[in-house]
């Protein structure tokens, strides 16, 4: 409301609030950071030449002792994507560094800062080009991978959506990024059976984005045709066909795919626990005899 109706008064309000960012009271730093973060989602900060001042203020809060302040500061930096999208590229290096630091936050027991960093980075990526993110692409992909299996559904969803968004920047990093896709492939396919619909939706999106990078036209077409958001999925039939394409294109990956699936035999989610042995069964069904001989049967039989 203030952005809409009190624009000319905002520079003085911002000036008077700036000292509160260094207040000894957490509540004052939280309130001021929340106000600035929300203000950054409005183009009025650009019109009033406040963007740089407020962005520097948010960046300066990244070492704050209060987790909530650090989280809100990242939200503010991510909001620049809607408040001043044309300025995202200019400040791309600083914004990316802030998001990566947020994902690496060591004093974040509930991963609130990491969650905000992933959500905000997904918003910023729409306004960045490949050269802006090239140097950090692999670090981010590796860093977010453990969140795919988080007990917190918001972390699963945000990390998977971010991974899907990162694939747009894999050109020039083709083979190296393909390795990251193959590392996450089993997890993404199994989480199509996730108990939370928003995580299933995220997996469909990420797999559709991964398809063109996998060098297998059949898989790419399957992901595009069968993983549309508005379409229900016959999971067993879908996985049978996915495994057929995987074993035609990547037969040498059989052991790796099996061992990743074995990890999910102990999953706390019953549908994922059921999907993992089915996945292995379809892989073995479609692999040629030569590669089948390489399978280590002991862990498979014991289910460990």
From TrEMBL:
Family annotation (Gene3D superfamilies): Leucine-rich Repeat Variant
Maestro/Maestro-like HEAT-repeats domain ranges (all copies): 56-302
Stored InterPro entries: ARM-like, ARM-type_fold, HEAT_Maestro, Maestro_heat-like_prot
Organism: Eubucco bourcierii (red-headed barbet)
Name under which the protein is recorded: MROH1 protein
Annotated GO CC locations: cytoplasm
SUPFAM superfamilies (UniProt xref): ARM repeat
Gene from which this protein is expressed: Mroh1_0
Pfam families xrefs: HEAT_MROH2B_C
